[in-house]
Amino acid sequence: MAVKVGIPSSLLFYVFFPFWQSFFKEIGVQVVTSGKTTKSILDKGVREALADACVPVKLFFGHVIDIKDNVDYLFIPRVVCLNQKTIFCPKFLGLPDMIRFSVDNVPPVIDVRMDTRVGRFPLVKAYQEVGAYFGASKISALRAYLKARQVLNHYRALLIKGFTPAEAMARLNNPDESKPAPRPRENLKSNLKFAVLGYPYNIYDSFISVNILEKLKKLGVGVLTAENIHPFLLALQKNCGLPKRLFWTFSDIALKAAHFLFKHGRVDGVLHLTAFGCGPDSLLNKFIELEAKKHRNIPFMTLMIDEHTGEAGMATRLEAFVDMVRRRKEMIACQR
Amino acid sequence: MSKVTFPRMGESWRTFKMLLEDLGNEVVVPPRPSKKTLDLGVRHSPEFACFPLKILTGTYLETIEMGADTIVTSGGMGPCRAGEYAMLHHKILKDLGHDMKMIVFELPRYYPFNFIKNVWTLNKSRVCIRGIISRIKRAWRKLQALDNAEKLSHVVRPREINRGATTRVYHKILDWIDQAYTTEQIIEAEAAALEAMRNIPQDHTREVLKVGIIGEIYVLLEPASNLEMEETLGNLGVEVERSMFLTGWTRDNTWTETTQGMTVKEAAAPYLPELIGGHGRDSIGNTILFAKRGFDGMVQLAPFTCIPEIVARTILPRVSRDYDIPILTFFLDEQTGKAGMSTRLEAFTELMRRKKLLLKKKNVAQKNIYIA
Question: Which of B56, B304, B311 is the mutation pick for testing A, counting most A CBs within 10 A?
Answer without folding.
Answer: B311
